[in-house]
């Protein structure tokens, strides 16, 4: 969410949320969890609902219905990978053995056709290459879309714990990650105080 605002040079405020207070107000937090976005008359919860709203608002949904569908598909694919990543962080506590199994299942290019629940970095690599209009810099079309921001985010998470493996196995994804990281607005956000240093609640990853 913050990455989207940064890419569009839009100022935003992050308000700390008291866990107990959140649980006590289901009228504000229908699923009793964050994030929640308040944007004028719109009050939105659920991460992907927020991202799709922002994609529509800031024209990050492609130029036509074909591209919008492609954006949605890539967002869902990224979400599948994110779920596996979160299991590694919160359930497996990033234990060395679990980390090795994770890379073998969801990162190793040789296992892309295996049983991985559709969650594999190789799939992202193929999709990036398939979009010739993006020249390795965009997953959909030739300009920045929400698909790119979501892909960047999940690649950024993986680069923190699989940095060398990612660069060696997927130089195309590493180049894409570097491209988005250098975009005006994004570059400043990544280097600034609004970016959370500890991306996970248990300080792993």
Automatic annotation (TrEMBL):
UniProt KW rRNA processing keyword: no
Pfam family, one: GST_N
Broadest EC class assigned to this enzyme: transferase
Superkingdom to which the source organism belongs: Eukaryota
InterPro entries: Glutathione-S-Trfase_C-like, Glutathione-S-Trfase_C_sf, Glutathione_S-Trfase, Glutathione_S-Trfase_N, GST_C, GST_superfamily, Thioredoxin-like_sf
Gene Ontology MF terms: glutathione transferase activity
Keywords per UniProt: Transferase
Domain GST N-terminal: residue ranges: 1-62
Domain GST C-terminal as annotated: residue spans: 64-199
GO biological process: glutathione metabolic process
UniProt keyword Ribonucleoprotein present: no
Catalytic reaction(s) noted: RX + glutathione = an S-substituted glutathione + a halide anion + H(+)
E.C. numbers: 2.5.1.18
Sequence similarity: Belongs to the GST superfamily. Mu family.
Function of the molecule: Conjugation of reduced glutathione to a wide number of exogenous and endogenous hydrophobic electrophiles.
Name of the protein in question: glutathione transferase
């Amino acid at each position: 969410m913050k990455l989207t605002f940064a890419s569009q040079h839009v100022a935003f405020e992050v308000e700390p949320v008291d866990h107990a207070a959140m649980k006590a107000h289901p009228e504000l937090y229908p699923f009793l969890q964050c994030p929640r976005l308040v944007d004028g008359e719109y009050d939105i919860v659920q991460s992907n609902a927020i991202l799709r709203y922002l994609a529509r608002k800031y024209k990050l949904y492609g130029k036509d219905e074909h591209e919008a569908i492609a954006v949605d598909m890539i967002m869902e694919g990224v979400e599948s990978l994110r779920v596996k990543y979160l299991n590694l962080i919160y359930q497996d506590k990033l234990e060395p053995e679990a980390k090795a199994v994770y890379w073998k299942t969801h990162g190793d290019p040789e296992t892309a056709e295996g049983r991985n629940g559709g969650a594999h970095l190789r799939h992202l690599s193929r999709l990036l290459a398939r979009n010739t209009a993006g020249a390795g810099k965009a997953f959909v079309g030739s300009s920045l879309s929400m698909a790119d921001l979501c892909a960047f985010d999940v690649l950024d998470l993986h680069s923190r714990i699989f940095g060398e493996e990612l660069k060696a196995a997927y130089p195309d994804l590493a180049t894409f990650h570097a491209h988005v990281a250098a975009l005006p607005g994004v570059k400043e956000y990544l280097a600034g105080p609004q970016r959370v240093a500890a991306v996970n609640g248990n300080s792993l990853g």
